[in-house]
Every structure is written in C-alpha cells, then in structure tokens.
Specification:
Isopropylmalate Dehydrogenase; 12 strands; alpha/beta; globular; 2 domains; single chain; binds manganese (II) ion; 41% helix; two-stranded antiparallel sheet; binds 3-isopropylmalic acid
Length: 332
C-alpha cells in the first residue's frame, strides 16, 4: 500500500489559501496520499486574536513529515511581526538551514538552483537600538556567520552539484571584497570543503553585484549557486523575474538532517491586491508541492507534476487559479 504522509498545512493570508488548495488537489491527482493537519496562522489570525506561532504548535510540527505553506502577510500588521514571529521562527526552531530554490526556463536553456543559507547572516536578529527615538539614536544589525553553519550549507550545495541530475558546477556568491570578515569565513570554508571532499565539482565565485548582471545577461552559466541568507533572498527574487516571473518560483526550507519536518512554500508573498479573486498563478505553489514530494521520497510523482507544470510555464496553460490547477491535474 502507498504510504500516507502527515503534512501540516498553513494556508496563510491573501492568495495563500487559493494556491495551496490547488496545490493539494494536484498532489492528490498525482496519487500521493496526504493526511493534512490545518493550522490557521498568519496576519489575519494575528489581527483576530494576537496569535503568531505558539510553542505548542511548534512542538506538534516536530512530529510531522512536512509543512506546506501558502503565504503570510496582511496589511495592518507591523512589519516584521509575522515574518520574524512565524516564518523565521519556523526556519530557526525547526533548523531549516537550507533554502532551495530551483529556476528553470527550458525555452531559454536556463536551469539552475539557488542554495540559500537559511538560519544565519543578517536574519539572525543580532543587534538593537541605543537611544531610540532621540537625535543620537543608533541601530545596529549584525551578520552572524558560524563555521558550522557555512560548512553544512556549502556541503549541501556541493552534494547537490555533484548529483547525477546536475552539471557538476557550483558558484559561490558573496561580497568578499567588502565583507572581509563574513566573506572570508565563507570563502575559506567553501575552498576547504571543496578541496577535502568535492574535487570533482567545478567551482566559481561571483560577487553578488556581478551575479545580478549575470543573472540578467547570462543566467545559462549557472548550475548551482550557494550564498548567504540575505544575498539569497534578493537573488532569488531576481532569478524568479528572469525565469518567467515569481508566479513560477518554488522553494523548500529544508532540514536535510531530518531531525524534523521541512517546509515548502512558493517564493511569492500573499499579494493582498489580488486575493480572493481566483486570479493568482498557482504554479509556484504546485511546484513547491512537487519539491515536498521529492523530499518525502516520491520523486516519480514529483517529476510528473513538474512535467505537467511545464505547460503553464510555457504559456500554454492560462486562466484562473482553479482552472490552471485543473489543467495541470489533467496532464498528470
Ligand atoms: C522569502 C521572503 C522572506 C525572507 C520574508 C517574508 C521574511 O522574502 O522567503 O524570500 O526574507 O526570507
Ligand atoms: Mn524573499
């Protein structure tokens, strides 16, 4: 009998519920059984009763196989509250140290994956205010980089680059010419891991500003990119924009050690301006669902979903959120 996976579902805000409903239907149509547990969390929930992410929920999540999330964020909630209190808390507490974001545009010969470190850097929350609200105010926001954190991230990226599905090439992106402390740790760690364990992988290094130019002018050069948390955040929006739009960009927040569930979500946000209109492109959410199936050990179903989504990415399938979902499900 096929296995059934226990998946926590956070539909979230804005277009989140619409795209996740479609994603779940496509997974069902692909023949994978999910036992879903719904969690009503996000900006709307916060506005209703002040709940962001209770520790009791985090504890429940530790026993799940995966988490599937739409988007969180609602106008009227102070900036950072849901991002830090829900999304980042999830990434940190569940040790989702890899953020994997694939970008494919077959017509243009583009096929690369960004591996973004997901628990450190400027996201770590180091810093604070001094003399807040006065003319002498000081705000600092440091970047936290540990050898262990960089090592496990670049190792994951090297493993991926040498996997049979890839082309054996890994580019590190940073800003070593200015960030001479964190950049130095990244560069040394990258080179040490390469020399000790992955000599067969060809490597390159790009400064992040140059990488922005290459992503626009010559994205075909990339196979796997590994980078720091904030650079990865910015680069993956750009990468989405140059490979057909953010409506196709999928992501996995991974705990490769499998000490808990990994979380899968589209790169796009809650898009409140088009929420509830059955207008949002569900492809990114569907492709994030395919990444979840890969991680759960259902690569054949994941491949079928990706193949069906190609028709959406080529523009062959268009229409409302639900209609795009139905057309993709029919092609499985
Ligand atoms: C992303 C998002 C998040 C991030 C926000 C919503 C906290 O932009 O997943 O890329 O910055 O990581
Ligand atoms: Mn982002």
């Amino acid at each position: 009998m096929a296995s059934t996976y226990r998946v926590g579902v956070v539909r979230g805000d804005g277009i989140g519920p619409e795209v996740i409903d479609v994603g779940l239907k496509v997974i069902e149509a692909a023949g994978v059984g999910l036992e879903t547990v719904d969690y009503d969390l996000g900006g709307a929930r916060y506005l209703r009763d002040g709940t962001v992410l209770p520790d009791s929920v985090l504890e429940e999540w530790r026993g799940l196989d995966a988490i599937y999330l739409g988007a969180v964020g609602t106008p009227g909630v102070p900036p950072g509250l849901i991002e830090r209190g829900l999304l980042l808390k999830m990434r940190f507490e569940l040790d989702l140290f890899i953020n994997q974001r694939p970008f494919v545009d077959t017509a243009k010969g583009i096929d690369f994956i960004v591996i973004r470190e997901n628990t450190e850097g400027t996201y770590a929350g180091e810093g604070g205010f001094l003399r807040k609200g006065t003319p002498h105010e000081i705000a600092t926001q440091g970047s936290v980089n540990t050898r262990m954190g960089v090592q496990r991230c670049v190792r994951y990226a090297f493993d991926l680059a040498q996997a049979s599905a890839r082309r054996g090439h890994l580019t590190m992106v940073h800003k070593t010419n200015v960030l001479t402390f964190s950049g130095d740790l990244w560069e040394r760690t990258f080179n040490e891991v390469h020399d000790a364990e992955y000599r067969a992988v060809a490597t390159a290094y790009n400064h992040v500003d140059a990488a922005c130019i290459y992503l626009v002018e010559d994205p075909q050069r990339y196979d796997v990119i590994v980078t720091d948390n904030l650079f990865g955040d910015i680069l993956t929006d750009l990468a989405g924009a140059v490979t057909g739009g953010i409506g196709f960009a999928a992501s996995g927040n991974l705990n490769p050690d499998r000490t808990g569930p990994s979380m899968f979500e589209p790169v796009h946000g809650s898009a409140p301006d088009i929420a509830g209109q059955n207008k949002a492109n569900p492809t990114a959410a569907i492709l994030s669902g395919a990444m979840m199936l890969d991680f759960l050990g259902e690569p054949a179903a994941a491949d079928r979903i990706r193949a069906a989504c190609a028709a959406s990415m080529s523009g062959e399938i268009t229409g409302s959120t639900t209609s795009v979902g139905e057309q993709i499900a029919r092609r499985l």
